[in-house]
Amino acid sequence: MRVGILATDGVERVELDLPRGALQGAGAKTEILSLHHGEIQARQFDLNPAGTFPVDRLVADASVDDYHALLLPGGTMNPDQLRMDRDAVRFVKDFMASGKPVASICHGPWTLAEADAVRGRRLTSWPSIRTDLRNAGAEVVADEEVVVDGQLITSRGPADLPAFCAAVVEQFARAHHSVAG
After folding, report:
1. Which CDD domains match (predicted)?
2. DSSP labels for 4-19?
3. Can you tell me whether residue 38 is helix, strand or coil?
4. Mean pLDDT by 10-residue block, N- to C-terminus, for the chain (181 residues)?
5. In angstroms, rounded to a whole number, what is the distance separating the alpha carbons of residues 122 and 129?
6. Which residues belong to the active site?
7. What φ, ψ does residue 13 adopt, rounded to 5°?
8. Looking at residue 58, what is its pLDDT?
9. 42: helix, strand or coil
10. d(Cα 84, Cα 152) in Å, to the nearest integer?
């Protein structure tokens, strides 16, 4: 299974690292897609520098057909920049339209909202973006660690990462096996 991870500067390190590690531990290959070449700057709690991640590919050059699933980590700055980038929004919109699984945590659903991909969906997120998601037509749940609505898997934030990682691996594998088998 090949998983695209869409992220840019300001990504919350733990929200990229832990799901990516869980996916790789389950045998998936992951690629970081971003807005620019080189490395992206990670953060801890949005404020503290937390190292870098090498970029594997520009989202502008990526195709939905290249991936079985998509991961959208959070951090406040990361999705705020992604939702302002035409190529990133198009990629997310196309991915949701494909029916392939998409997982998003914390502020990550901001990009989904910009892609008009949350209307009529049940999901969760970081508390500060829930009004934005409701305004975009989502049914927002506040009291669940993980919400699965068809192809979409969402979680509230770093405290939910154990449940989120388990759900992501399970849902991505289930979708991959149903396509492969």
Report:
1. GATase1_PfpI_like
2. EEE--TTEEHHHHHHH
3. coil
4. 98 98 98 98 96 98 97 97 98 98 98 98 98 98 97 98 98 77 44
5. 14
6. 106-107
7. -50, -50
8. 98
9. strand
10. 22
